[in-house]
Amino acid sequence: MNLLDKNDALSLARLRDVLIRLEDTIIFALIERAQFKLNAYTYQPDVYDYDDGYKGSFLGYFLHEMEKVHSRVRRYTSPDEYPFTQPLPTPILPALDFPPTLHPNSINVNVAIMERYLQDIVPKICPAGDDLNYGSSATRDVECLQALSKRIHYGKFIAEAKFMDPTQQATYIRLIQAKDREGIMALLTNRTVEAALLRRLRRKAMIYGHDITEGGDIVLDQETQDKKISPDVVVDLYERFVIPLTKEVEVDYLLQRLNNWDGPVTIKTS
Ligand SMILES: C=C(O[C@@H]1C=C(C(=O)O)C=C[C@H]1O)C(=O)O
After folding, report:
1. In terms of Cα–Cα distance, which of 97, 107, 100, 118 is closest to 40?
2. Where does the Chorismate mutase domain start and stop, copy by copy (predicted)?
3. Pick from 247, 78, 102: which is nearest to 161 by CA?
4. What ipTM was estimated for this complex?
5. Is 246 a catalytic residue?
6. Does any ligand 1 atom lie closer than 6 A to the CB of residue 189?
């Protein structure tokens, strides 16, 4: 996906390909985190003293330090990147000239992502207990959180692509003007895509969660599988968290889509 090319960035098929690729990123990030025990100290506030007077958890401290460095190299000027922490420094690299693909908005659901990740995901993928690997746990947590955040905020691009569909735009405008959240949710929901995604996800988690012999055969060993990642947990994570939150982002984005909008433009029917 080339976000510097507006047509590419608003192709629904291309956007869905990005979400498929992010399935791999997310599954492997979860497998990496699941190597370590829960390590609750990573998430408890004020366990350590921090050099800059920071008050919070070790994960929160590490995440903010990481996001400050990434901000310096302009990560968060990209329309598909959203930080968890503030304040962040200005970039040292000059801004890239991204086309105005998304309608201006301030939607950031990372607080909800962090909450669900800590309460609902880490306890399900990691063995209980403490193996002292707090640094390793936090680095894997950041990988998981950044991948989940990117995937869920892609809902903005998906929503924009649906809004720019000439066969749908008038209906979206009517529902947005009526502030009809349920109507918008129903119109943007695609059960066929969701069902295919969950079937594919289960297969991927099953295959990625197994070892492959030198001869290229999958070692179907339940113990290995459970140690790496449970396909049920991955499917449940998407069904109850990733997909619903992506759709909430789509609805939130569409509800503000008509703000300061100069009306229907000539739509390229490519
Ligand atoms: C992302 C889309 O919008 C919705 C959300 C989906 C998801 O989060 O996987 C899948 C289908 C739709 O219900 C899409 O239409 O592809």
Report:
1. 118
2. 136-250
3. 102
4. 0.98
5. yes
6. yes
